[in-house]
Write a structure and sequence with these properties.
Length: 502
């Protein structure tokens, strides 16, 4: 099922529910209105009959006025009123309309059901009782003498009268049926008209989506500059187009970066591999002394170590790109950790040129993984020693600021040109000055350092001034110290404040 069909089905289902509810409500309201009109006509007829009754002190007398004769019930049509005036005792008929036929089924037989309900109101009640039996809607009214005196009552006087008027409900029912049929017909016609319009509007509204889908199907991997065409609607579809084009741009950049990465990797591996092969070929040309074989093997070993470093760096970058690294952090105190790592470096070549850190008060803690954090520091120190002249100081400082903590590695080397500074964390990137000076390296150390910082939820930035050196700043969110260290610090503060010797 297409999207246009689903949208049309949803809208048409909602429209069907609305039309049904509207038609049903209109049908019920119209029916009630017509029956209220019918009851109003019956009430008016009863008022005419009440006006024809003379209320004496000791009885009631039916005596229509000569100047206002009763004209109700002169016609015998289905919509004409029928009425009858009945005495309470014995149900004797006092007066009736010309079109009221007691012996005909549907007249007296139908009124008799309301006769019983009309006797229920209490004496003196002026309210009419309404009822319906068969096709008749009937209203009855009870009249009582003010001071009944059956002994003195004349022959034409009664103590209680029941005035009943009836109207056939056939015209009302016919009107209601016609209204129902009209509502069904109009609702059905309107629904089908809306179905066609909704289908047309849905296809027209979704045409930009269809065009964009067709454009996507025509895209090929060879043409990397293709973008989705603008629908020209200025609405959410335009936002979708921009978001998709941004995704295409990011994917294009990622593909280009991977291709550049693969090309650089193959180039960097080709050099040591060619050196290994050439050394082996030279060794195999003739018999050599053990010392010559040792010299050749040392060169092969050096090239193999270089290839291993390249491969390990490539594997690390590939794992970080695929988001498969599982990092388990632990709380690390910056100063203590730096002291241990720098002690390891100071035992090696040029270790005396590394200074720091200055302890922080109170100690700062971060959440990181020690092997990865050590690798990050090693890459920065290795880069600083590589580009700093022998005998110059390399300083490592710890710092804390605005909820973050970390360390800096600062050298006194030649610095990095401003044009090269934005690219130093890209894999295999090496500045023209570094290549011209013949500095060893393949351009992966800083790229690995940045990936480690990213995976440890940290940041790494570089600030350099040509001729004055470079400073790398590594920062992480500061965390609370472990509970044991925190309690020990509190106890130590209490002892120092109380002056008690330990």
């Amino acid at each position: 099922m297409t999207l246009a069909t689903r949208i049309s089905a949803f809208l048409l289902a909602a429209l069907a529910v609305v039309l049904f509810a509207f038609s049903l409500a209109l049908y019920i309201l119209a029916e009630r209105y017509l029956y209220r009109q019918l009851d109003g006509q019956l009430a008016a007829a009863l008022e005419v009959l009440v006006a024809a009754v003379d209320v004496e002190e000791d009885g009631l007398k039916w005596h229509p006025a000569e100047d206002r004769p009763i004209t109700l019930g002169t016609e015998d049509g289905p919509g004409d009123c029928r009425w009858v005036v009945i005495n309470e005792s014995g149900g004797r008929t006092i007066a009736q309309s010309a079109n009221y036929h007691p012996g005909r089924a549907g007249d007296r037989a139908e009124f008799s059901t309301v006769w019983q309900t009309a006797t229920q109101p209490k004496r003196g009640s002026t309210r009419a009782a309404y009822g319906q039996s068969g096709i008749w809607r009937v209203a009855a009214r009870r009249l009582d003498a003010a001071e009944p005196d059956e002994a003195d009552a004349s022959e034409d006087e009664v103590q209680t009268m029941y005035l009943m008027a009836g109207l056939s409900t056939v015209p009302v029912r016919a009107s209601v049926r016609e209204l129902g049929a009209a509502l069904v017909a109009l609702s059905t016609a309107f629904w089908f008209a809306c179905a066609m319009l909704t289908r047309w509007f849905s296809h027209r509204a979704l045409r930009p989506v269809t065009q964009m889908a067709a454009a996507v199907r025509q895209m090929t991997a060879s043409d990397r500059n293709q973008q989705l065409p603008s629908p020209g609607t200025g609405d959410e579809l335009e936002e979708l187009r921009r978001a998709f084009n941004d995704l295409l741009a990011r994917m294009r950049e990622a593909v280009e970066r991977q291709q550049r990465f693969a090309g650089d990797a193959s180039h960097q591996l080709r050099t040591p591999l060619a050196g290994v092969l050439s050394s082996i070929e030279v060794a195999l040309r003739r018999e050599r002394s053990p010392a010559e074989y040792a010299t050749i093997l040392d060169g092969v070993h050096a090239q193999a170590v270089r290839m291993r470093q390249i491969v390990e760096s490539l594997l690390f970058l590939a794992r970080s790109d695929s988001d498969q690294m599982q990092v388990e952090c632990e709380s690390i105190e910056i100063d203590g950790w730096l002291a241990g790592e720098l002690a390891r470096w100071r035992s090696g070549f040029r270790g005396a040129e590394i200074g720091g850190p200055t302890p922080l008060a109170p100690p700062a803690f971060i959440c990181a993984q020690r092997p990865l954090l050590a690798q990050l520091l090693d890459n920065l120190l290795d880069n600083a020693l590589k580009y700093s002249p022998p005998g110059t100081l390399i300083t490592v400082h710890s710092w804390r600021e605005s909820g973050r903590a970390g360390f800096t590695v600062e050298d006194r080397g030649p610095g990095i040109p401003a044009a090269d500074l934005p690219h130093i964390f890209e894999p295999f990137y090496r500045s023209a000055a570094a290549r011209q000076q013949g500095r060893a390296g393949v351009g992966l150390g800083l790229a690995v350092a940045q990936r480690i910082a990213d995976y440890l939820d940290g940041t790494i930035t570089a600030d350099s001034q040509p001729g004055r050196g470079t400073r790398f700043n590594v920062g992480f969110p500061e965390v609370a110290p472990p509970a044991a260290l925190h309690n020990e610090s509190i106890s130590r503060d209490k002892i120092e404040n109380s002056g008690t010797p330990q």
